Amino acid sequence: MSAISEAAVLEALKTVKDPAKGQDIVSLGMVSGLIVKDGNVGFAIEVDPRQGAAMEPLRKAAEKVVHDLPGVTSVTAVLTAERAPQAGAAKTGAAQAAGQAGAAKGPGGTMIPGIRSIVAVASGKGGVGKSTVTTNLALALARLGLKVGVLDADIYGPSQPRMLGIAGRPTSPDGKRLNPMENYGLKCMSMGFLVAEDTPMIWRGPMVQSALQQMLRDVEWGELDILVVDMPPGTGDAQLTMAQQVPLTGAVIVSTPQDIALLDARKGLNMFRKVDVPVLGIVENMSVFVCPNCGHESHIFSHGGARREAERLGMEFLGELPLDIEIRETSDSGRPVTVSRPDSPNAQAFGAIAARVWEKVSQQIGAGGARQAPKIVMQ
Ligand code: ADP
Fold first, then answer.
1. Which helix (H) or strand (E) holds 95?
2. Residue 324 C-alpha to ligand 1 middle, in angstroms?
3. Ligand 1 site, residue 131, Cβ cutoff 6 A
C-alpha cells in the first residue's frame, strides 16, 4: 500500500467547504496540526466556539474525504474551540492539543521518563472533596520527603490553581514543552493555567484525551517519585478513557458517607477494575462534623459505613477526614491545611493517608516495575 502524503491529505480537504463562508477549509486556514503517520491521519479544524455543534457535519465530511484516499487506514478529525492562547508562547491549549489527537499510534500508555509512579484521585460525583484530598495528599507526600507533582485532569472545573495558591501562566523553555507551575514544593499543571476561567470550551472526547496527554507528556516534570492526578468527577466514559490513557500505578477513591450508601464508591472501583488499575483504597471525606465552636463531633451521616463497605468490596479503608471548616477555608484560600497547619489533627489525618498510599505505591512499583497503561478500546 502506498504511503499517504500530507499534501495529498490537504488536497482532499480542499474539497470540503465551510458552508457559512463558502470557501474550502484549507484556504480558510482552518486545518491545523496535521499528522500523517503510516496510514493514520489526524488533524484539527479550528472553529468558532459558538458554532461547535453546527460544525459537526463539516468535521464528518472532512474525515470522510480523507478516509476515502488510498492508503489511509484511520482518520481522526477534531473541532477545536480556540487557537493557542498566545502566539510566541508555548503553543498550548486546545488547538494544539487537538492537533496531536491524530497520533493514533503515538506513545499511548507508555510510562513517562522520570516519573516513578502516577496515582489517580477519583470520585463517583462532584463536590465530595476529591480536589481537596488531591491537594493535601500531594502536600503530605511531599512532607514525607518525596518529589511530587499534581496533574489537574479535571479540565471541566480545574481547582488545583486555587487550592495550591498558584496564579499566572506556565513558561516554555523551547516553545514546545511547558514548565510546570510550582508552590509549596509541588509541581503542578492544570488547564486552569492555560485557559481563562470564563472561556467557553468545546471539549470533544478526542480533545479531552489529547489535552490530558499534553499536560502529562509535554511538561517538564523532571524527576518525580509520584504524580497525583485530580480526575474529573464521575465514572462515565470520559473518566474511564482517561483512566486508560494515563499509565496509572493505582487509584484512590474519595467518597462521602452518602456516596458510600448510594454505591457510588463501587462504581469507581468497577471503573478502575475495568482498566486493570489497582485501587489502593478509599478515603471517607466529610465523615463527621466537627463543631467549630466547641469541637463536638456529630455523626450527621451514619458512621463506620465506609469502613464496612470497603471491607465488603475488598478495598482498603485508607482513612477518614472530618467535615471541618478549617479544611474548607484553608483549601479555598490556597493555603491547604497540610502546609498552613501541619500539626493540626486534620493535617495529620492527611499525613497518615499519604504514608499508607506511598507504602502501597512502593509495593506496586517494586513488584511490577513501571506499569504500562492498559490498552482497551472504548467506543
Ligand atoms: P470535588 O473535587 O470532589 O468537586 P472539592 O475538593 O472541590 O470537591 O470540595 C468541594 C468543597 O468542599 C470545597 O469548597 C472544599 O473546600 C470543601 N471541602 C472538601 N472537603 C472538606 C472537608 N473535609 N471539610 C470541609 N470542607 C470540605
1. helix 93-99
2. 10
3. yes
Mean pLDDT score of the chain, rounded to an integer?
81
**Nearest residue by C-alpha to atom 27 in ligand 1:** 328
Instruction: Categorize the per-residue pLDDT at 92 as very low, low, confident or very high, splitting at 50, 70 and 90.
Output: very low
* Burial of 211 from C-beta contacts in 10 A (0-12 / 13-18 / 19+): buried
Between the CA of 132 and the centroid of ligand 1 the distance, in Å, is 5
Q: Whose CA is nearest to atom 12 of ligand 1?
A: 129
Residue with the larger pLDDT of the pair 38 and 7: 7
Average pLDDT for 105-114: 56
331 lines ligand 1 (CB under 6 A): yes
Of the residues 125, 289, 331, which should be mutated to test ligand 1's pocket, given the most ligand atoms within 8 Å of the CB?
A: 331
| CA pair distance 95, 349, nearest whole angstrom | 41
Give the Cβ contact number of residue 147 at 10 Å: 19
pTM for the full predicted model: 0.70
Quick one: cell of 276?
486493570
Determine the average pLDDT of the residues in 120-125: 91
Atom 19, ligand 1: which residue's CA is nearest? 129
Is the per-residue pLDDT at 281 higher than 50? yes
The residues with which 152 forms a beta bridge, in sequence order, are 190, 230
